[in-house]
Amino acid sequence: MNYDEMRAMEKTHCCAVCGGELVTIWDDEGNCYRLCCGQDHTHNGFQQKLSPQKALQRGKADEVIGPGAQKDLEERAKRSESALSLLPIADVATGQTLGIAEIGKLVLWAEEIGLTAHLGHVCLYHGKPYVTIDGYYYKNYKRKKPYRIGVRPMTDEERLLWQIGDKDLAYIAEPWDGETKLPTTGFGLVSADEREEKSSRAPGQFRAPVVHGHPQRMAEKRAEWQLLRKLIPLELKE
């Protein structure tokens, strides 16, 4: 097994002894790279990571998340047949597959701030939980008096001030509380380089197909996301 194959297995397999994450290390004695358990390098054997569905079927949720998690997730699945299949399954930035523990924690965190994970309200980005634009749309909708959001392209003066490239798309989101315009904005940018960047994993394809195909809408959504993040603290449950 070569180095790249070992790194790939880190995402799909775990230690067969303790279930811990795998790591690729340099073995001085063997003068080669070795795939091993990240918790204990002496553990032998690997096994494929369980999907959320398989983990529930085998009753493993309590072990990796905590007491009561198995029953909680089973009840959640009963309430919505599609809930498990719609849960976040990967880190949106790195593509790293999420384990059942990470998914479970994301589900519980979403509920704490009044959101629902399997409705696309939250995601994991570089290992940290974030509210998605759909989550903020929902938070705004649930307010007693939702903010009205307007989105527009940056003016020539604003583009010059912010040093925006000629081929970059830049938008500003502005809020209204009733008839009153609020003194804050959100900024969204999609650069020309980002639109045309090619995938390192799939030759001939774009790294971000949605950004390439819909750059204007992506810039608008980024502006809306930044604005709503400013306007709606996560602790607020209206």
Describe the protein in words.
With 238 residues, this protein is an alpha+beta fold. The chain has 3 domains: 3-48, no CATH class; 52-131; 143-231, no CATH class. Helices cover 38% and strands 20% of the residues. The chain has helices at 3-12, 52-57, 61-64, 69-79, 83-86, 100-112, 133-141, 156-162, 192-196, 209-213, 215-231, and strands spanning 13-15, 22-27, 32-37, 46-48, 122-125, 128-131, 148-153, 169-177, 180-181, 186-190. Strands 7, 8, 9 and 10 form a 4-stranded antiparallel beta sheet that branches. A two-stranded antiparallel ribbon has the order 1-4. Strands 2-3 form a two-stranded antiparallel sheet. A hairpin with a 4-residue loop joins strand 2 and strand 3. Helix 7 (133-141) crosses helix 11. The longest helix is centred in the C-terminal third of the chain and has 17 residues, at 215-231. The chain is flat. The termini are far apart. The mean pLDDT is 84.
Strand content: 15-25%
Number of helices: 11
Please give the radius of gyration in angstroms. 22 Å
Largest sheet: 4 strands, antiparallel
C-alpha geometry: flat
| Low-confidence runs | none
Care to count the β-strands? 10
Q: Which features does this protein show?
A:
238 residues; alpha+beta; 3 domains; 4-stranded antiparallel beta sheet; two-stranded antiparallel sheet; 10 strands; 38% helix; flat
